[in-house]
Amino acid sequence: EQQEFVKKLQSEREKLQVLTKEFQKFVSTRQQFDAQLNENELVLSEFNRLKSSAEVFKLVGPVLVKQELSEAVGTVKKRITFIKGNWSAATRTSPPRRKTSEVPGKSDEDAAAVPAENAGHATDGR
Length: 126
Prior knowledge:
This protein is mainly alpha-helical and about 130 residues long. The protein has helices at about 1-50, 70-90, 110; strands at about 55-60, 65. A two-stranded antiparallel sheet has the order 1-2. It starts with a helix and ends in a 14-residue tail after the last helix. Residues about 105-125 have low confidence and may be disordered.
């Protein structure tokens, strides 16, 4: 009986390690998306402060190339949309959003045993 308990405990520990690694990867990905989104939103806000006659340049390799302000704004807006879309796709398969039945060794019945202390935690939807 004690050996069965030790085996089950080891099995649960391994499952926890897998989930911990997945969660760490999720957090790292989230941080990357947030950094990219913040950078692009900052660039867009700076573009919005410029006069329409302002000269804008983009770096292409080692060379600065003149670019129309409207084109630069459009490019940054597309980048922001792309980043948000990728983030939405990534969160659909993230560990925090997986069903309990998708967690190795857990069933939906096990979910009923989870205390209500996890209830009420809101997410920001990013």
